[in-house]
Amino acid sequence: MKYKNILIGTTILGLVTFLLPVVTGRDMSLAPISREVASYLRVPSPLILFILWYGAFSIALVLSLVNIKSIIFSRIRFVIIILLNIYAIAVHLAITSELLGRTGALGFGGIIYYLSAVANIFVSILLFKDGGINIKKEIDSHKSDS
């Protein structure tokens, strides 16, 4: 289950990026969850912005912590985590491209956010495949015991 630990770690890392600057420029450094960013994006509250921007990582963290014994539900969970991370990339891309404009550059937090989402997608794919392999091994070992 080393992949599961990687999934949990990268999800937590993705959540922590809200403390790091997402957009940096010559004279600016914007944290993702601030009044300025919320008012620029015309979002009524930074809390709503946090839910939109980091909600996918929050849900993925909860899903990765849940222990599911059923193979079917486990695979469904990994598909949901993959879709949540694709959503996270799309939202992050939309928001940062809006904030970047012509003067800024992607900050350290923005880069880590992308890397965390992509790592979560790959690890979820590996866990999805690994779940099927473990079951076949258990079935084969039960056949040899009979």
Describe, in plain words, how this protein is organized in 3D:
Residues 132-140 have low confidence and may be disordered. The chain starts with a helix and ends with a helix. It has five helices and three strands; from the N terminus they run H-E-E-H-H-H-E-H. The longest helix is centred in the C-terminal third of the chain and has 38 residues, at 108-145. The chain has helices at residues 2-16, 35-40, 46-65, 71-100, 108-145, and strands spanning 23-24, 29-30, 105-106. It is mostly helical. Helix 1 (2-16) packs antiparallel against helix 3, helix 1 packs antiparallel against helix 5 and helix 4 (71-100) packs antiparallel against helix 5 (108-145). It has a three-stranded antiparallel sheet.
Secondary-structure map with pairings?
Layout (H helix, E strand, L loop, with lengths): L1 H15 L6 E2 L4 E2 L4 H6 L5 H20 L5 H30 L4 E2 L1 H38 L1
Antiparallel strand pairs: 1-2, 1-3
* Class by SSE composition: mainly alpha
Strands in their spatial order, largest beta sheet: 2-1-3
Give the low-confidence spans.
132-140
Please state the overall shape, judged from the principal axes of the Cα atoms: elongated
User: Which range does the strand content fall in?
Assistant: under 5%
- The number of helices is 5
Query: Radius of gyration, Cα only, in angstroms?
Result: 19 Å
Task: Please report the total strand number as a whole number.
Answer: 3
Order of helices and strands: HEEHHHEH
N-end to C-end Cα span? 28 Å
User: What level of helicity do the residues show?
Assistant: over 70%
Main sheet? 3 strands, antiparallel
> Mean pLDDT score, rounded?
79
